[in-house]
C-alpha cells in the first residue's frame, strides 16, 4: 500500500525510543519552578533596595506641581503648607504688589528641598489670571500649551542621537485644581478646564477654603461635584483605568470616595494644648490644618507626597507623555 504522493518529511528530529524511567529519576524536561522559589540560604537579593535608596539619595529626584484656580483661593498658602516652607511664587517675591494680570500668565519657581538626606528638586507652577476675567473664554489654552511644551522639550532630548544620561524632567506631574467653595455645583469653567486638562495631566480637584462651609454643606457640595464629574465623564486622579492590582484598586477607591478634598491652608503656627500646630486663628478657636477632624489637608498631602508621588510621575511618563509622544511621532512620519 505505497502512496503516490511524496512523503512528508518532518523537520523535527527523529524520536528517541523511550527507555523505561527508573523510579525516582528526574525527567529530562523540567517545568519552570514556582515564582516564590525556595532558596537554600541567604543570597542578598534584597540589598538591591538599599542600592536604589543610596542612588536616589545621591542624585535626588524631580517633582513638578501646578496649582490652578482663581486668585484669593489660597493656592500659594496651600503649597507652602504642603512642603512646610516658603516655596510659593508670592513667598519668593515679597514686597511686590499683587495685581490681577489681563491674561493667564504661568510662573514657575524651583527650589531644592532636603529632608533626612533625600533631595527633591521641586518646581511649583502658578497660573495668575486664571478665571479672574469677565470673559474667561479659552483661558485654559496657555496652561495646555505650557504642559505640551514640557512634553515637547522632553521628547526633543529623548530623540537626540547623543542623549544626556539623565534628561531634565520639567513635565507637570500633578495639577491641583482649586474649586471655589460656593456650595452649589461646579461652574462651566471648572467642568471645561478639568475635561480638557484631565486628558493630558493628572488633575487633583480640591475644595478651597473649606472652613467657609459647614460640615453639612461641605458633604453636600462634595457629593454634587462627584456627580458632576461622573455625568460629564471627567476622570480625575487617581484614574480607575490605571489601577494595577486589587490592592491598588482598594486604596484608590477609598481616595476616590473622598475626592475632591476639602482643604484649608495655613503657614502660621499657633499654640494648642502646649503644642505648636499649623492653623488658622478665629474668634471661636483654631482650625488645625493637619487635624483630619478639621479638614482633609492630610489626605491631600498623603496623596501628593507620601503615598502616590512616584505613581504621579509614572502615570505622567507612561500614559500622558506616551500619548503625546505617539501623536507627535505620527505627525512627523506622515508624508507631506
UniProtKB/TrEMBL annotation:
Keyword Metal-binding attributed: no
The biological processes this protein is annotated with in GO are: cell division
Name any one GO molecular function.
GTP binding
Residues of the Septin-type G domain = 59-331
| Signal peptide per UniProt | none
Which cellular component appears as one GO term in the record? cytoskeleton
Pfam families per the UniProt record, alphabetical: Septin (PF00735)
Task: Read off the CDD domains from this record.
Answer: CDC_Septin
Q: Which UniProt keywords apply?
A: Cell cycle, Cell division, Cytoplasm, Cytoskeleton, GTP-binding, Nucleotide-binding
Q: Does the keyword Acyltransferase apply?
A: no
Write down the InterPro entries for this protein, in alphabetical order. G_SEPTIN_dom, P-loop_NTPase, Septin
Q: For bias kind Basic and acidic residues, which ranges apply?
A: 1-11
- Give the start-end ranges of region Disordered: 1-28
Q: Where is the protein localized?
A: Cytoplasm, Cytoskeleton
Family membership, please give it: Belongs to the TRAFAC class TrmE-Era-EngA-EngB-Septin-like GTPase superfamily. Septin GTPase family.
PANTHER family from the UniProt entry: SEPTIN
Protein name stated in the entry: SEP12 protein
Taxonomic source organism: Nicator chloris
Amino acid at each position: 500500500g505505497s502512496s503516490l504522493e511524496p512523503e512528508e518529511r518532518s523537520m523535527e528530529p527523529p524520536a528517541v525510543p523511550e527507555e523505561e524511567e527508573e523510579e525516582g529519576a528526574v525527567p529530562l524536561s523540567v517545568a519552570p519552578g514556582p515564582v516564590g522559589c525556595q532558596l537554600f540560604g541567604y543570597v542578598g537579593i534584597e540589598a538591591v533596595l538599599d542600592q536604589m535608596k543610596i542612588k536616589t539619595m545621591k542624585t535626588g529626584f524631580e517633582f513638578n506641581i501646578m496649582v490652578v484656580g482663581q486668585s484669593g483661593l489660597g493656592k500659594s498658602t496651600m503649597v507652602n503648607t504642603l512642603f512646610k516652607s516658603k516655596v510659593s511664587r508670592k513667598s519668593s517675591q515679597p514686597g511686590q504688589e499683587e495685581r490681577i494680570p489681563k491674561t493667564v500668565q504661568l510662573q514657575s519657581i524651583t527650589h531644592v528641598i532636603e529632608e533626612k538626606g533625600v533631595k527633591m528638586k521641586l518646581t511649583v507652577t502658578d497660573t495668575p489670571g486664571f478665571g479672574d476675567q469677565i470673559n474667561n473664554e479659552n483661558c485654559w489654552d496657555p496652561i495646555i500649551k505650557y504642559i505640551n511644551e514640557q512634553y515637547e522639550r522632553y521628547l526633543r532630548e529623548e530623540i537626540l542621537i547623543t542623549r544626556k544620561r539623565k534628561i531634565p524632567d520639567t513635565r507637570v506631574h500633578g495639577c491641583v485644581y482649586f474649586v471655589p467653595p460656593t456650595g452649589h455645583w461646579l461652574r462651566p469653567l471648572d467642568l471645561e478646564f478639568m475635561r480638557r486638562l484631565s486628558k493630558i495631566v493628572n488633575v487633583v480637584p480640591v475644595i478651597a477654603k473649606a472652613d467657609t462651609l459647614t460640615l453639612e454643606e461641605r458633604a453636600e457640595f462634595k457629593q454634587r461635584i462627584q456627580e458632576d464629574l461622573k455625568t460629564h465623564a471627567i476622570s480625575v486622579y487617581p484614574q480607575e483605568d490605571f489601577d494595577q492590582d486589587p490592592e491598588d484598586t482598594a486604596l484608590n477607591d477609598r481616595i476616590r470616595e473622598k475626592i475632591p478634598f476639602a482643604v484649608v491652608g495655613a503657614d502660621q503656627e499657633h499654640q494648642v494644648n502646649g503644642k505648636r500646630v499649623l492653623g488658622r486663628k478665629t474668634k471661636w478657636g483654631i482650625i488645625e490644618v493637619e487635624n483630619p477632624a478639621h479638614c482633609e489637608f492630610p489626605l491631600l498631602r498623603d496623596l501628593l507626597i507620601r503615598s502616590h508621588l512616584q505613581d504621579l510621575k509614572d502615570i505622567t511618563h507612561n500614559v500622558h507623555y506616551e500619548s503625546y509622544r505617539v501623536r507627535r511621532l505620527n505627525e512627523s512620519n506622515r508624508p507631506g
